[in-house]
Structure formats: structure tokens, C-alpha cells
Amino acid sequence: MKREERRQAIMDLLVGARAVDLDDLADRFAVSRMTIHRDLDDLEQAGLLRKVRGGATIEAGTQFESDFRIRALQDGDAKTRMARAALEMVEPGMTVMVNDGSMAALLGASLTDKAPLTVITNNAAVIERLKDAPRVTLIALGGTYSAKFNGFFGVVTEDALSRLRADLAFISTPAVAGLRAFHMDDAAVRAKRAMMAAADRAVLLVNHARFGRSALHALADLGDFDAIITDAAPAPADRAAIDRAGLRLTIARD
């Protein structure tokens, strides 16, 4: 097996299992541990995984989030249910903001069901999906493109948002610890905060598995959101904290 084929196979395994063992990979591909080390080093350098003791993972860390292309292949059913629940909050005629992320990309593609709408987004996948959509006024935010997040960020993005106003902003996050949302990228945090400041209401989208996790940058208190949508009940301690705080939590079911 050629090097690139082996590395693609490693990523295919990670999409399904989320973590791989170095020794298992060496046995599977009949190569040395050092060869696998080099493969993992190069994939980590490309931002596709993070190395851990004895292997690698695509699970988020305090400073790591897997590449958009990987996340887009994960948790499809959960994302569909969350997008459906989020869509119920949208009414024709609204102006809606959609941030970066694979969950938000799925929601953005569904917004045509609520047309006519004005959609403001820095999410390249949403821009691609809605650019020719009938009865959708698309405002694509410029900025510096990030392949990792498949979106646009930076001063240009934030300045544009400061001049706009929306009814709803859909904000996704990879980590919630206690009663606060976190993100590992400061540029993404600034764009998300700018969207929240420019919208009458902000809705947080977060996979239930992301509760109980932290990341490098604090994004916002959960109380800053008008609603929180997740795909399943978080751990009892996390759910209890949300309930005690009187926050609105929607669990998207089939």
C-alpha cells in the first residue's frame, strides 16, 4: 500500500472509531511503528488528527478540533435532528445568521424550506448551497478563509457583522463546561460573538457528547443564549446544572 493510501485508510478508520492505536495500525498495514509515527505526525501537522499516548484521535481537545471534512462525515443522524429542531424556530421573512461548522452547514442547507429569508453566513458550505436558492437573499461574509473550519474569519468578517442586524443567530460550539461554551480558535470565537451581538436572539447548537468538555477560549455563558439545542440528554450533572439555571434546553428527537 502506498503512503497516501495508507494515510487515507488511517483517516477512514478514525472517522468510524474516533481513535486508533499505533501498534494496531502497524500490524494492520504491515509496517514499522516508526512509519506509523511519521504518518500520524504528518496528519497531525495537516490538522486532521491529534496524537495521544499510543495512538491518535479526532476527538476535540482544548486546542484541537478536527478538520471540517472529517466532522462533516460524523454524527449525521444527530445533526439532522438538531437541524430540524432549529428550523422550527425560523419563520418566513426572517433574517438569519448561520456560523461556521458542519452542524450549521446542514442547517443552512435546510433553510430553503422557510423561504423567503435573508441568510447571513461565513460558512462556505452554506454559501455554496444557497447561492442559487430561490427566494433567499444571501449575504456572504468575507474575510480570511480557513480550510480547517471551511469558513471566513477575521477583521473583515467582524466589521461586516457590526453593520448588520438579524432576527436569529445559530451558533455552534465544540465544548461546554459547566454553564459556559468554549472554542479552541480565537478567530472563530470573535466571529461567533459578533453574530450574537448582531442578532435579536441567539441559539446554541451543541452535540450532547460535547458537554463536560472545555477548550482554550471561553465563547459565552449559556445564559447568553435564548435557547440551546442538542441531540440527546447530556450527562445528569450537566443537565441538572442547566435546569437549575433555568435555561431552555431542547433535545432534538426523531
UniProtKB/TrEMBL annotation:
InterPro entries tied to this protein: Carb_Metab_HTH_regulators, DeoR-like_C, DeoR_HTH, NagB/RpiA_transferase-like, Tscrpt_reg_HTH_DeoR_CS, WH-like_DNA-bd_sf, WH_DNA-bd_sf
Keyword Transcription present in the record's keywords: the answer is: yes
Query: What PROSITE patterns does the entry give?
Result: HTH_DEOR_1, HTH_DEOR_2
Q: Which UniProt keywords apply?
A: DNA-binding, Repressor, Transcription, Transcription regulation
- Molecular-function GO terms, alphabetical: DNA binding
Q: Where is the HTH deoR-type domain?
A: 3-58
Q: Which PANTHER family does the entry mention?
A: GLYCEROL-3-PHOSPHATE REGULON REPRESSOR, HTH-TYPE TRANSCRIPTIONAL REGULATOR SRLR-RELATED
| Name the record gives this protein | DeoR/GlpR family DNA-binding transcription regulator
Q: Which organism is it from?
A: Paracoccus angustae
